[in-house]
Amino acid sequence: MNSIIQNIGRNVSDLDLLTQSLARNVKRWRTERGFTLDALAARAGVSRGMLIQIEQARTNPSLGTVVKIGDALGISITTLLDYEQGPKVRIVPPEQAVRLWHTDAGSYNRLLAGTEAPGPLEMWDWRLMPGEGSLSDPHPTGTVELIHVTRGELALTVDGVEYRVPAGSSASFEANTPHTYANAGDVPVEMVMAVSVPGVH
Length: 201
Prior knowledge:
- There is one protein chain.
- By secondary structure, the protein is α+β, with helices and mostly antiparallel strands.
- It is 29% helix and 32% strand.
- It has helices spanning 4-8, 12-33, 37-44, 48-55, 63-73, 77-81, and strands at 98-102, 108-116, 120-128, 133-136, 144-151, 153-158, 161-166, 170-174, 179-182, 189-196.
- The strands form 2 sheets. Strands 1-2-3-10-5-8 form a 6-stranded antiparallel beta sheet. A 4-stranded antiparallel beta sheet has the order 4-9-6-7, with no helix packed on it.
- A hairpin with a 5-residue loop joins strand 1 (98-102) and strand 2 (108-116).
- The longest helix is centred in the first third of the chain and has 22 residues, at 12-33.
- It is globular and about 45 Å long.
């Protein structure tokens, strides 16, 4: 499993900061939502033991686990990993864009920016090398993804149906079913993605 810390890089201070931020923010938002550990575990489909380890900064969870927790809490991954709640205007320099997934061949995604407005809203930068792909579990009902392909041709599969999105084209879809981003071509696919998740009521 790809862990968040593995994918950020090898700077130990950054990794420690990320683990501590995740621990603090999961606990904070769980408390704000009024969820017990058992309730959040059930909503997220994550074990109670895993949540305890995350809140105690004793583990390095996979990206899938962090996404499930964020979805269950109704907050963005940006908020879960945020170590400083800044002013209303927040500039994210290139070196602070967090790489959450990558492969040895050179595929990756980077979380460029995110906010709560009124639910999580995230902007991503993706690269998929030829022959590679990434599967995403269903997000909460009401989640919408917008994609703009700048290079190559994306093979987007939503609920078992494949759609081709060539460079210069955009796509939007409801993301509450399984979906896959893949590159069946022979040049890298590059795209920008926005994800809007409804807030928790």
